[in-house]
TrEMBL record:
Record domain 4Fe-4S His(Cys)3-ligated-type: where: 103-142
Protein's name in the database: Formate dehydrogenase subunit alpha
Record's keyword terms, sorted: 2Fe-2S, 4Fe-4S, Iron, Iron-sulfur, Metal-binding, Oxidoreductase, Repeat
Annotated Pfam families: Fer2_4, Fer4_7, Molybdop_Fe4S4, Molybdopterin, Molydop_binding, NADH-G_4Fe-4S_3
Source organism (scientific name): Paracoccus albicereus
Molecular function in Gene Ontology: formate dehydrogenase (NAD+) activity
Residue stretches making up the 4Fe-4S ferredoxin-type domain: 194-225, 238-267
Similarity comment: family membership: In the C-terminal section; belongs to the prokaryotic molybdopterin-containing oxidoreductase family. Belongs to the complex I 75 kDa subunit family.
Record gene name: fdhF
């Protein structure tokens, strides 16, 4: 395939070097007469590749350790007997290697002849034609004929099947045609996975797929079963296939396969790609880089880019395969308007839709005041698009009524880390995990929410690092293939602060803290005050055990492991932030890192795992009502002056409304208009009844999205959005990495999202003249200190950078707080535990917590419109068998889930993943509307909703609740679209 990479990165070598790179003392050797110097431990194969000498190979790949099974890469080494495999032979000083000789050529040709003799020769019609390593290597070794004839020990090319005569494990017969061949058994293709096929007839048993599943993904779902001719890849037990096995469809095996044994169905259907564009995944906050491989303007497949610094060539099922939503028939491609929400939609031109929206929004301001309208930015859109939306409200609406879903998930991160360290982001890069000795996961589920990072963490755990998991559920990281946590602290939902304080209590009272670090890097007087507070007996594990449910001995052991185990890194997620004390917990986590000196070097730090692709970026871009881009408060005259000079308009010094305030004001009659880009607040925000009431009370709701989502039920204007494949820009991932998003295809709706926002602004009287997102980034850099040196040219040159990127750090900052904290001295904050107002009792005795699942993403608007639904067709409630038995609930039963806020129905699944008294569900399907259950309680500092603690009752149900039926009827009515005029 010809790569058309935008931009061409001359320094990036996409060749497969055969074996991984090493770090060590320099070693000089001679290969085919050429001298080369490489690090100690480098293989002869990789050293040859460094010289541009490609040694033939089939079982080797540079993202896995050498295996040495194919014997195609043999070389001669002066002074040594035989012909060793170059992939498993490390270089030595003065070594003299010959990669070409008549002897080697004869061996390689003979080896390849054996492979081809067992391989179907259907190259012209094979889906891997032109993209097959076996085909390429046969040419490389000069194989022109095969002397062997078919027999019982070889594949029969005429039948294109796997002959397995006498093999009892075979799962079918070839039918009538088999009679002429002695009735051999035939193993058919496995088409069970929606995205790729397994054809055993084309397997050369190189084991690359098995090793990729083990070494790269860490799932250990694949094995080689049988011996000799009967050897083949197996996905689990005898009756398993690639769908029913432990396979998580990450695509590592497909990418590793050198033949068409494992092949994307899209390639089989559309043909081999001819060009590719490097872009960034639009799912979770890991920010994986992909090659979007194309035929013309059609996307054939997404392949993880080996030079992506966040994913290092790996992927998950969502980024790798779940891109089909961009072409789904549900997608709206034409603007639509309606006067009232009980009318059907009617398609109109862009000019009419934008004119209608502008006239309504200006009319509302004239009638109700300039603060009667506002915006919601998106964590799915680019930095440039998000920047323009917050600029719209400040420079065109002339108020600060801007908020974002990032506040609904991670605003406590910004507040907590800002208070303690002086910056609102994680401290490390993902590569740092390779140096971690003890990892603590708090309130996160990496295997489901951030699977590519989870694979990297699991690899480190298999190498000997220790793991502490703090979570109400027994997530996969607690125990799965070849890893297990040293400590699992299954705390009661809502008691995060108490658990973190108990960990700190042990560290302080047992004097496990790093006094030298604290004296040098933190305020010693503040530490002494904090130490006095945290040393009180009420914070001890013994005193808090009855509150948290965590055994005191286990908690003490976990604290000692973290404090004394070497490099300690904390990774946390929404299970920390989405609480009434989310900000307090973040500050407590920051305290733990400072106590132990685990900050400012590789392998340590405090690392929030952002849920959506651009949560970090939407915060950086000033999406909060009190902060301009760069986390600077609107009350500061010097900050406003900078933007006023660039924008040419005055900026209101008063903070605006957050989403809950907008909804409250709407119900009260003072907030009347909303422009919502790329968010579905009716499904994603808490207390669905209140959200619906607020939206219904507004007189103009503009929804800018790909699909008619749940919020659009209450919209008056629908502006069709563009997918990440159809736009240029940048995303900022969880490690502060600014990654380029590149246009893979032209927008199907006609415009990228930033262009639509600009057109709306201009329709309301602005005079914006951007012609490319790079100009928006230039404006961001001119006004935001942490982005001061960021340009598209720099990103094209380096691939990506991590902010701060400015004069002091012109190439970005992988590690924060190396020589000192951004705020100067690190600040210890007293973290008093205050119980949430949401409490269980006789009426609602269980505690509900929520989360995500691997195959689905957020509210499911994208993943539900792909084949990922095969793994998760509905939200279900996890309930402990004891709680289920006492309520008469069996596996798969419909149950009613009720809280003080509302009720819904869904199916139950019985599991001991949750403790008695705790239930768990996801929120990916709107038919369930799980957030009708959640309350309006929120974090004391940021209003981040308390999704993770809701008192509920579970009881058997015969069907949907009255509210669900009413909601579904209203949703169906609201999505009517009048047929286009003739």
């Amino acid at each position: 395939m010809k790569d058309f990479i935008i931009p061409p990165m001359d320094l990036q070598d996409d060749r497969d070097m055969g074996t991984p790179a090493r770090v060590g003392a320099p070693v000089t050797l001679t290969i085919d007469g050429f001298s080369v110097t490489v690090p100690e431990g480098t293989s002869v194969m990789r050293a040859s590749a460094e010289l541009g000498i490609d040694v033939p190979k089939l079982c080797a790949s540079d993202n896995m350790e050498a295996f040495g099974s194919c014997r195609l890469c043999v070389v001669e080494i002066e002074g040594r007997r035989g012909t060793p495999a170059s992939c498993t032979t490390p270089v030595t000083e003065g070594m003299v290697v010959h990669t070409q000789s008549s002897k080697i050529r004869k061996i390689r040709k003979g080896v390849m002849e054996l492979y081809i003799s067992d391989h179907p020769l259907d190259c012209l019609t094979c889906s891997a034609n032109g993209d097959c390593e076996l085909q390429d290597q046969a040419g490389a070794v000069g194989l022109r004929e095969v002397r062997y004839t078919s027999g019982e020990n070889h594949y029969d090319p005429a039948n294109n099947g796997t002959l397995a005569q006498g093999d009892a494990r075979a799962r079918g017969t070839r039918g009538a045609d088999a009679a002429d061949l002695g009735n051999p058994l035939f193993i058919p293709k496995d088409n069970s996975n929606p995205y790729f096929t397994y054809d055993p007839s084309k397997c050369i048993v190189c084991s690359r797929c098995v090793r990729a599943c083990e070494e790269v993904q860490g799932t250990f779902a694949l094995t080689i079963e049988g011996r000799g001719f009967d050897s083949r890849v197996s996905a689990g037990a005898a009756d398993d296939n690639f769908l029913t096995s432990d396979c998580v469809s990450c695509g590592a095996c497909v990418q590793a396969c050198p033949t068409a044994t494992l092949q994307e169905k899209s390639v089989a259907a559309m043909g081999t790609p001819e060009r590719s564009v490097i872009t960034t995944c639009a799912y979770c906050g890991v920010g994986c880089s992909f090659k979007a491989e194309m035929q013309g303007d059609e996307l054939v497949r997404m392949t993880p880019w080996k030079h992506g610094k966040a994913n290092r060539g790996h992927s998950c099922v969502k980024g790798r395969f779940a891109y089909g939503y961009a072409n789904h028939t549900d997608r709206i491609l034409n603007p639509m308007i309606r006067d009232t929400i009980d009318e059907p939609w009617r398609e109109v031109s862009w000019e009419e839709a934008l004119g209608f929206a502008a006239k309504r929004m200006r009319g509302l301001q004239e009638k109700y005041g300039k603060k009667s309208i506002g915006v919601i930015t998106s964590s799915r859109c680019t930095n440039e698009e998000t920047y323009l939306v917050q600029k719209l409200t400040r420079a065109v609406f002339h108020n600060n009524n801007t908020d974002t879903c990032a506040r609904v998930c991670h605003s406590p991160t910004g507040y907590g880390l800002g208070q303690t360290y002086g910056t609102s982001a994680g401290t490390q890069d993902f590569d740092s995990v390779e140096h971690t000795d003890v990892a603590m996961i708090i309130g996160a589920n990496p295997t489901d929410g951030h699977p590519v990072f989870a694979s990297r963490l699991k690899k480190r755990l298999r190498a000997g690092a220790k793991l502490i998991v703090v979570d109400p559920r027994r997530i996969d990281m607690v125990k799965s293939a070849h890893i297990s946590a040293q400590h699992h602290l299954p705390l009661r939902p809502g008691t995060n602060v108490a658990v973190v304080s108990a960990l700190a209590h042990v560290i302080v009272t047992e004097k496990l803290y790093d006094e030298a670090f604290i004296r040098e890097r933190c305020d010693w007087n503040e530490f002494q005050e904090y130490a006095e507070f945290i040393s009180q007996d009420r914070h001890s594990p013994e005193q808090t055990e009855s509150l948290t449910g965590v055994p005191s001995a286990e908690l003490r052991a976990a604290a000692r492991t973290y404090a004394t185990g070497g490099n300690g890194a904390i990774y946390y997620g929404l299970g920390v932030t989405e609480h009434s004390q989310g900000s307090t917990t973040v500050m407590g986590i920051a305290n733990l890192a400072m106590l132990t000196g685990n900050i400012g070097r590789r392998g340590v730090g405090v690392n929030p795992l952002r849920g959506q692709n651009n949560v970090q970026g939407s915060c950086d871009m000033g999406s909060f009502p009190h902060e301009l881009p760069g986390y600077r408060h609107v009350k500061h005259p010097d900050v406003r002056a900078m933007f006023e000079e660039v924008w040419g308009v005055p900026i209101d010094p008063e903070p605006g409304l957050r989403i809950p305030n907008m909804l409250d004001a709407a119900v009260e009659g003072t907030f009347k208009g909303l422009y919502c880009q790329g968010e579905d607040i009716l499904q994603s925000d808490p207390d669905t009844h209140h959200v619906a009431a607020g939206l219904a009370a507004m007189e103009c709701v503009i929804v800018h999205d790909l699909f008619l989502n749940e919020t659009a039920n209450y919209a008056h204007v629908f502006l069709p959005g563009s997918s990440f494949l159809e736009k240029d820009g940048t995303f900022t991932n969880a490690e502060r990495r600014i990654n380029r998003v590149r246009e893979v295809m032209k927008p199907k709706n006609g415009y990228a999202d930033w262009e639509i926002t600009q057109m709306l602004a201009n329709a309301m009287g602005a005079n914006w003249t951007y012609t490319h997102p790079s100009q928006i980034m230039d404006e961001i850099a001119a006004t935001t200190p942490s982005f001061a040196n960021v340009t598209y040219e720099l990103l094209e040159e380096r691939g990506s950078v991590q902010w701060p990127c400015n004069e002091e750090h012109p190439e970005g900052t992988p590690l924060m707080h190396v020589d000192g904290f951004v705020r100067g001295k690190g600040r210890f904050v007293v973290t008093e535990y205050i119980a949430t107002d949401e409490k269980s009792g006789p009426r609602f005795p269980l505690l509900l917590t929520t989360g995500r699942i691997l195959s689905q993403y957020n509210v499911g608007a994208q993943t539900r419109r792909t084949d990922n639904v095969i793994w998760h067709q509905e939200d279900v409630l996890e309930i402990h068998p004891h709680d289920a038995e006492s309520r008469g609930v069996n596996e798969g039963d419909w149950i009613k889930l009720a809280s003080r806020a509302g009720e819904t129905t869904l199916r139950a699944t019985l599991t001991d993943r949750v403790s008695p008294g705790v239930v768990y569900t996801t929120f990916h399907h709107p038919v369930t509307q799980a957030n009708v259950i959640t309350t309006d309680f929120s974090d004391w500092a940021t209003n981040c909703p308390e999704y993770k603690v809701t008192a509920v009752q579970v009881s058997p149900s015969n069907g949907p609740t009255d509210w669900q039926e009413e909601y579904n009827a209203q949703a169906e009515m609201s999505r009517r679209i009048l047929p286009a005029a003739e």
